[in-house]
């Protein structure tokens, strides 16, 4: 059903409801899985500098023979490139690796700056802690990203892993409202207040880890399994359908052709089943599947009621 479904962005353009995730896809797997996904019909591809596969994804897009204008390609500014003098350089490097002359969406990956250390994306102190860059604030990084829009090589800019608190701060200085906030979203971590805030401010949300990521506890949840049986579909298709029915785009990742095919189909859930899935967090203690604050000063996820549900 979702193969042709899209959501409208505040830029006036659209984003396909089901995208294709590529985190943890090793370069060869990324090439093969993206090519498979494109053949199946996916046109929305999500990558990032941090995933170390932009080059192979660019090659897969090119080798698919599908015209560029049919795609919606997202990549992200990594934390070591937050300094205003590095934003445009990082952006151009991503474009070159992807062999594209424009991006559909460029996101700030995290609201958190690390010091620049060349190819080292995780600069660490001897004690193992990330070396943060306290000289730059994410509002300054974002202002530099806004200039990329003027340059015409990106259609939309957005953020990722932004809490309500950080969005409020950003909106005080932003000239361009972020088109998208990409965050972890699934029934164990629905972030209802964050979604409400984004909806109220015309910021579309993309849900990452919609299946609950690797070795997902959600896929083994009996309620999810029972609902899947009722519709004669798989647990993955139920989780994807729930995400889309909330108005969020979803970007499931797989390197397995049969799953790539399976994940490109959603169904319409009856309200009763949608509600059951939405209430899973109340009975299940497991919430955030990707807990990652990068030792960062800026609050990302945690004990803030504003970001809780
Ligand atoms: N912005 C951010 O900070 C951020 C953070 C995390 C993720 N993301 C994005 O969101 C994407 C999705 O998140 P994710 O990769 O964490 O998790 P996910 O898509 O929720 O789950 C991926 C895992 O589920 C397995 N899988 C996929 N389809 C399946 C199916 N139909 N049945 C059973 N298992 C299935 C995959 O295995 P196989 O691959 O072995 O098939 C993989 O282990 C990422 O790839 C990335 O593009 C963004």
UniProtKB/TrEMBL annotation:
SUPFAM superfamilies: NAD(P)-linked oxidoreductase
Protein keywords: Oxidoreductase
Top-rank lineage group of the source organism: Eukaryota
Residues annotated as catalytic: 51
Annotated site residue numbers, Lowers pKa of active site Tyr: 76
One function term, GO molecular function aspect: oxidoreductase activity, acting on the CH-OH group of donors, NAD or NADP as acceptor
Keyword set includes Oxidoreductase: yes
Gene3D superfamilies: NADP-dependent oxidoreductase domain
Name of the featured protein: NADP-dependent oxidoreductase domain-containing protein
Taxonomic source organism: Circinella minor
């Amino acid at each position: 059903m979702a193969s042709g479904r899209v959501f409208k962005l505040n830029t006036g353009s659209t984003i396909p409801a089901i995208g294709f995730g590529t985190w943890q896809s090793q370069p060869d797997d990324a090439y093969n899985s993206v090519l498979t996904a494109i053949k199946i019909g996916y046109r929305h591809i999500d990558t990032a500098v941090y995933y170390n596969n932009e080059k192979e994804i660019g090659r897969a897009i090119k080798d698919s023979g599908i015209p560029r204008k049919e795609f919606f390609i997202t990549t992200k500014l990594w934390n070591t490139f937050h300094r205003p003098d590095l934003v445009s350089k990082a952006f151009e490097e991503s474009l070159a690796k992807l062999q594209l002359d424009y991006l559909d969406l460029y996101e700030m990956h995290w609201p958190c700056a690390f010091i620049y250390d060349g190819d080292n994306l995780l600069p660490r102190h001897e004690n193992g802690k990330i070396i943060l860059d306290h000289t730059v604030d994410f509002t300054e990084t974002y202002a530099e990203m806004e200039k990329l829009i003027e340059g015409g090589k990106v259609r939309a800019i957005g953020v990722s892993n932004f809490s309500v608190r950080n969005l409020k701060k950003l909106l005080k200085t932003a000239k361009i409202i972020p088109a998208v906030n990409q965050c972890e979203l699934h029934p164990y971590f629905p972030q209802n207040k964050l979604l409400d805030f984004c909806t109220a401010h015309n910021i579309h949300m993309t849900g990452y880890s919609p299946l609950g990521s690797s070795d997902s506890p959600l896929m083994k949840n009996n309620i999810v399994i029972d609902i899947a049986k009722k519709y004669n579909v798989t647990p993955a298709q139920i989780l994807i359908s729930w995400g889309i029915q909330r108005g969020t785009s979803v970007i499931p990742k797989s390197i397995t052709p049969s799953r790539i095919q399976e994940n490109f189909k959603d169904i319409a859930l009856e309200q009763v089943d949608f509600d059951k899935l939405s209430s899973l967090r109340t009975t299940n203690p497991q919430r955030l599947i990707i807990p990652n604050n990068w030792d960062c000063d800026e609050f990302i996820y945690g004990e803030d009621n504003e970001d809780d549900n």
